[in-house]
Automatic annotation (TrEMBL):
It comes from Sinocyclocheilus anshuiensis. SMART domains: ING. One of its GO terms (molecular function) is chromatin binding. This is Inhibitor of growth family, member 5a. One of its GO terms (biological process) is regulation of DNA-templated transcription. It holds the Pfam family ING. InterPro entries: ING_fam (IPR028651), ING_N_histone-binding (IPR024610). Residues 6-108 form the Inhibitor of growth protein N-terminal histone-binding domain. GO terms for cellular component: nucleus.
């Protein structure tokens, strides 16, 4: 039940993401699908090559291996594109969060410095009061 609730929350949060983030996640999913399809294609080409290698002429072998190599190159291209897209998506999400956290830190620093100032002022007043009490002098306003 807890896992289902967590999954529902995650899906809801993804649905509420800005359009550009949704677009990036969709593109990453498409790149994954393309890469997976290309891997299947490479596997078939490799199996075919292994099955027929003895019957292929040298130029056919080179051509077949070139097809396999091109498939791997395309897979790498898909992966590189996905990494770039993931980095862009991370930047989109992290920059506003970093700015928000920086603002919170500045606010906390201001509050803390005001607290310290008030504490120092209070401590100074207390110390002044003690010194007057010890000397037996009082200030009347």
């Amino acid at each position: 039940a807890l896992t289902t609730m967590y999954l529902h929350q995650q899906l809801t949060s993804i649905e509420n993401l800005p359009c550009e983030l949704q677009r990036n996640f969709t593109l990453m999913r498409e790149l994954d699908n393309r890469a997976e399809e290309k891997k299947c294609e490479i596997d078939k080409l490799a199996e075919e090559y292994i099955r027929n290698v003895r019957n292929l002429a040298p130029d056919q072998r080179v051509e077949h291996l070139q097809k396999i190599q091109n498939g791997f190159s395309k897979c790498k291209e898909y992966s590189d594109n996905k990494v770039q897209l993931a980095m862009q998506t991370y930047e989109m999400v992290s920059k506003p969060k970093v700015l928000e956290l920086e603002g919170q830190i500045k606010m906390e620093e201001m509050c803390f410095s005001q607290f310290l100032k008030m504490a120092k002022d209070s401590a100074a007043r207390i110390e002044l009061g003690r010194s007057f009490l010890q000397e037996g002098t009082y200030i009347c306003s």
